[in-house]
Design goal:
Layout lengths: L3 H20 L2 H17 L9 H22 L14 H5 L3 H11 L3 H11 L5 H8 L3 H22 L11
Length: about 170
């Protein structure tokens, strides 16, 4: 059996990246990573090291979905005293491209976002993606293709030259 430290060092970056791309929130991604590894460590007797990465990503996705469900149940409070200045993270971030990609990813439905991230970032096969998301292999291929097409179209529209009225040419 592998140690917790070995497991964490081997897969924490992948789980964090996946959680970040799903949520678009660094703090939430860190929380998801922590909870993911706690849960997998508690279930270590049932752990198959051959499929541990897919198992970790499935846990992370489920935690993200649980968080979304909890957030949807909470009533939003209107904070009209919010500071209009950018936060420290936004000020420190000099990677505008990453922020634009994260914003574009957030426009995709959750299943499409998860499918394209599992393929592009984690390098999972369509079979693995299908099994992780409860889809057929063909459906997983279609989800990834359509998500990539939509992201390309969105990126193309954002970089199109603008007329004086702000309309894309």
């Amino acid at each position: 059996m592998t140690t917790f430290s070995d497991l964490f060092q081997s897969h924490s970056r992948d789980v964090y990246r996946f959680a970040l791309f799903l949520s678009g929130d660094h703090d939430l991604a860190e929380d998801i990573v922590s909870e993911t590894f706690i849960r997998v460590w508690h279930a270590r007797e049932r752990l198959d090291l051959g499929t541990v990465k897919a198992y970790l990503l499935a846990i992370a996705r489920n935690l993200y979905l649980d968080q979304r469900r909890r957030a949807a149940r909470r009533a939003s409070l209107v904070d009209d005293r919010a500071d209009p200045r950018p936060g420290p993270e936004e000020q420190a971030s000099s990677r505008g491209e990453l922020q634009a990609v994260l914003a574009q990813l957030q426009t995709l439905p959750e299943v499409d976002r998860a499918a394209v991230l599992l393929r592009a970032e984690e390098g999972l096969s369509y079979d693995e993606i299908g099994s992780l998301l409860g889809l057929t292999t063909i459906a997983a291929r279609v989800k990834v293709h359509r998500a990539r097409t939509r992201l390309t179209r969105t990126a193309g529209a954002a970089s199109a030259p603008r007329t004086p009225m702000g309309e894309a040419r």
